[in-house]
Design brief:
Elements lengths: L5 E8 L5 H11 L6 H17 L7 E7 L5 E7 L8 H9 L3 E7 L6 H12 L3 E7 L8 H12 L7 E2 L8 H11 L12 E10 L3 E10 L1 E2 L4 E4 L5 E3 L2 E5 L3 E4 L2 E2 L3 E5 L13 E4 L18 E7 L5 H13 L5 E7 L3 E8 L2 H14 L4 E3 L6 E5 L4 E4 L11 E16 L3 H10 L3 E7 L4 E9 H4 L3 H8 L5 E11 L2 E8 L2 E2 L5 E4 L3 H15 L7 E7 L2 E8 L15 H15 L2 E4 L2 E4 H4 L7
Parallel strand pairs: 1-3, 1-4, 4-5, 5-6
Antiparallel strand pairs: 2-3, 7-8, 7-16, 8-15, 9-14, 10-11, 10-16, 12-13, 12-15, 17-19, 17-20, 18-19, 21-22, 21-23, 23-25, 23-26, 24-25, 27-28, 27-29, 27-30, 30-31, 32-33
The structure holds guanosine-5'-diphosphate (GDP) and magnesium ion.
Guanosine-5'-diphosphate (GDP) binds next to α1.
């Protein structure tokens, strides 16, 4: 029967090790791309898409493979996002599979990024098929790489498939191994529907398109579905598979991977990891592992040109259509004017959003240093939550401040436990436990303040473990800490967008560092600019940006006119990402100086 012939898998690989090339070969060998009628359909779909101006990209394709045993198998190849900030999304994509192909470059060997995802796959009890790719290269060392796989991952690599995705060598064997090694999905078609959402995209024509893995039961157009995390109900308008374009089907059943549309208007309703069930015959409980994803860090986002405020709002709204984790609300800063307070999953997510806003929407932005959120008990008995340091009340009005703490799991090969512990201690970490997962890897667990790990913790970890550490963390709650607000004054005036909240024990050291960093980033002006760090009324660090020694244009007078013009143009370009704060011109980099103070 159908279920026995389904194989659901992902490809886990470091960037450039050949994942896309292997996927192309698999598509070719299974005739998913080459078939003439397929081709026509692909073109039709594209024409339609062009008319409607949309593209749907769901990270799963269905393939049909005729195996050596004469039977036809249904493969679902599920792609995983490659970003650290999205490790939760990776884990949900893997939870939609029974197996994973571990692809390692025969010349490069096992690399850090691979490890993090393999560990996730192992945690999910996936069957892993090791593949050593690029064996056609003269520098290939498949035997060495086999040993590495065994030592670094603790996986038997004696049966690894040797391939060249470039020449096609070994690919037929890969397909056979998918059939023989990766188990068929279990589950019961007669049980109430349980479908895992592992991806979702917004389509202006169909509303939200959910990528799901059906774990139990069956779903058809017309069914009334319910999302188990929030109880919202919708009527299914279409189900289907990506092959590789969307192809409608009569139903999706247990073991299937495909899409569901149900006139869902907002992607915020459809969180990755949630379970879809039937409203009239619901599952008893949701599938494991659902996590409400909430922003971890907040930053102020301001247009350099205040007139672009409305454009910025429209751009954020557009991005939000496809990014359920993006949150924002209006914010006003004395220094920077009107903008938005935006919540992000982490610093990489923040970078991605900034880049998209600037590139796709052509906006010039100033972003303030990221901050976590704080709970403040005030002396008048009220409690407030702030995610913007400038909003912290006066010290005399504060009874207690609590900051978010995380439980961090750091997985490393056991040679690197020492350096990892040293970094965690330095970041106010509290050691919890250490587990040996097998002969080679250790899971070190610490309680840490979130504010200490959002900046450079992961970079520090990586550089002191040759890149082999993987980090995962979740918020466990809030704890009272000895925290103070540090203000920065430029030319005697406090700049709200530069305020930070720091631990008392680190205040002096960090005040000095931020002042030094600002001195480097703020360019010389017509006048001297004193920079001060203050806690309350007390100045804890100071420095000065000297005035121009002489008019830089003076030496051009009477001289080379093009040189003068070049100089003026250069100054103008530099101004693009500058903001006048009072009388001082401050570049974007200055608002990130806090990142250099740790
Ligand atoms: P991805 O980043 O993992 O998706 O890697 P790609 O599939 O884009 O491959 C990265 C580069 O390696 C490309 O230039 C490919 O042509 C090349 N490549 C992939 N597989 C092989 C192979 O088996 N042999 C050789 N020599 N090159 C390969
Ligand atoms: Mg690729």
């Amino acid at each position: 029967d159908r279920q026995k012939h389904i194989r659901n898998f992902s490809i886990v690989a470091h960037i450039d090790h050949g994942k896309s090339t292997l996927a192309d070969r698999i598509l070719e060998l299974t005739d998913t791309i080459a078939k003439r009628d397929m081709q026509a359909q692909v073109l039709d779909d594209m024409a339609l898409e062009r008319e409607r101006g949309i593209t749907i990209k769901l990270n799963a394709v269905e393939l049909h493979y005729q195996a050596n045993d004469g039977e036809t198998y249904i493969f679902h190849l599920i792609d995983t996002p490659g970003h650290v900030d999205f490790s939760y999304e990776v884990s949900r994509s893997l939870a939609a599979c029974e197996g994973a192909l571990l692809l390692v470059d025969a010349a490069q060997g096992v690399e850090a990024q691979t490890l993090a995802n393999v560990y996730l796959a192992l945690d999910d009890d996936l069957e892993i098929v090791p593949i050593i790719n690029k064996v056609d290269l003269p520098s290939a060392q498949p035997e060495v790489v086999k040993e590495e796989i065994e030592e670094m991952i603790g996986l038997d690599a004696s049966e690894a498939v040797l391939t060249s995705a470039k020449t096609g060598l070994g690919i037929p064997e890969v397909l056979e191994r998918i059939v023989s090694d990766i188990p068929a999905p279990s589950g019961d078609i007669d049980a109430p529907l349980e479908a895992l959402i592992f991806d979702s995209v917004y389509d202006s024509y169909r509303g939200v398109v959910l990528a799901v893995r059906v774990k139990q039961g069956i779903v058809k157009p017309g069914d009334k579905i319910e999302l188990m995390s929030n109880g919202k109900q919708f009527e299914v308008t279409e189900v289907g598979v990506m092959s590789p374009k969307a192809v409608a089907r009569d139903f999706l059943m247990v073991g299937d991977v495909g899409y569901i549309t149900a006139s869902i208007k907002t992607i915020q309703d459809t969180r990755v990891g949630d379970t879809v069930t039937l409203a009239d015959n619901p599952a008893e409980k949701a599938l494991d592992g659902f996590r409400q994803i909430t922003p971890m860090v907040y930053s102020g986002v301001f247009p350099v040109d205040n007139a672009k405020f409305v454009d910025l709002r429209e751009a954020l709204e557009k991005l939000q259509l496809n990014d359920a984790s993006l949150e924002f609300e209006p914010e006003t800063s004395q220094a920077l004017g009107f903008g938005f307070r935006v919540g992000f999953l982490g610093l990489l997510h923040m970078d991605v959003v900034q880049e998209r806003l600037e590139r796709e929407f052509n906006l010039d932005l100033i972003m303030t240093a990221p901050s976590v959120d704080y709970q403040v008990d005030q002396t008048d008995g009220t409690q407030i939550t702030i995610d913007n340091p400038s909003e912290l009340p006066d010290a005399s009005e504060i009874k207690e401040i609590r900051e978010p703490y995380v439980k961090a799991s750091i997985m490393v090969p056991n040679d690197y436990v020492g350096p990892v512990m040293e970094i965690a201690q330095r970041k106010r970490g509290e050691f919890v436990t250490m587990d040996y997962l097998d002969k080679y890897r250790v899971n070190v667990i610490y309680n840490l303040p979130l504010s200490e790990i959002i900046y450079d913790f992961f970079d520090d970890l990586k550089s002191s473990t040759k890149g082999y550490a993987s980090l995962d963390y979740e918020i466990t709650g809030y704890r009272a800490s000895d925290l103070v607000k540090m203000d920065i004054l430029l030319n005697g005036d406090p700049v709200d967008a530069l305020s930070t909240i720091v631990h008392k024990d680190f205040a002096f050291e960090r005040g000095k560092a931020i002042v030094a960093s600002l001195k480097q980033t703020i360019p010389r002006q017509q006048f001297e600019v004193p920079i001060q760090a203050a806690i309350g009324n007390k100045i804890i660090a100071r420095s000065t940006v000297k005035a121009y020694r002489k008019n830089v244009l003076a030496k051009c007078y009477g001289g080379d006119i093009t040189r003068k013009r070049k100089l003026l143009e250069k100054q103008k370009a530099g101004k693009k990402r500058m903001k006048s704060v009072g009388s001082v011109e401050v570049p974007q980099a200055a608002f990130m100086s806090i990142l250099n103070m740790h």
